[in-house]
Amino acid sequence: VPMVAPGNVQVHVINSTLAKVHWDPVPLKTVRGHLQGYKVYYWKVQSLSRRSRRHVEKNILTFRGNKTFGMLPGLEPYSSYKLNVRVVNGKGEGPASPDKVFKTPEGVPSSPSFLKITNPTLDSLTLEWGSPAHPNGVLTSYILKFQPINNTHELGPLVEIRIPANESSLILKNLNYSTRYKFYFNAQTSVGSGSQITEEAVTIMDE
């Protein structure tokens, strides 16, 4: 098997899900056989928004021939990763380069996990929601937009409310009685808004 590990391993983080890794080729005489390529082992150490450590799954990408760089796609935003590089010949892999740590920046969150509308009265509705399964960063706020729908399914004016990220419910007051409303709800990080969920609910007709 090869005798030495690739040197000068560098990681360039391109965005929250993509990084580029490059390394110096090993001297050909240390390959001790036919150079097949390089293998990059990389794995997530932890999510920076959640302190949970779970079973570490190692990803392996193989770059054929004498390439000295490669792309690592499909990374999780706002996470800490480690990687190392090994050279490969027909017999197997050489030693690993020292582990390199890199961090991905924040991304936009996934949609809130649910939006439930309860307790209709003449002029109010209660909203409850769950935080996104993948915050992909530090949540800064939730954005709620809503508008009335009339009997001919036309949409009325859109109202927008920004809600602090630590809230999980809200009572909307001063609504019109016996009116159907459409709600659009999403979470935000400093990078931007995540995907929204929509829901409809009706205030009651009379007491």
Automatic annotation (TrEMBL):
Pfam families xref list: fn3 (PF00041)
Keywords tagged on the record: Disulfide bond, Immunoglobulin domain, Repeat
Family annotation (InterPro entries): FN3_dom, FN3_sf, Ig-like_fold, Neural/epithelial_adhesion
Gene Ontology cellular component terms for the protein in this record: neuron projection
Top-level division of the source organism's lineage: Eukaryota
Location of the Fibronectin type-III domain: 5-107, 111-207
Protein name: NRCAM protein
Species, as recorded: Ardeotis kori
Lineage: Eukaryota, Metazoa, Chordata, Craniata, Vertebrata
Gene behind this protein: Nrcam_0
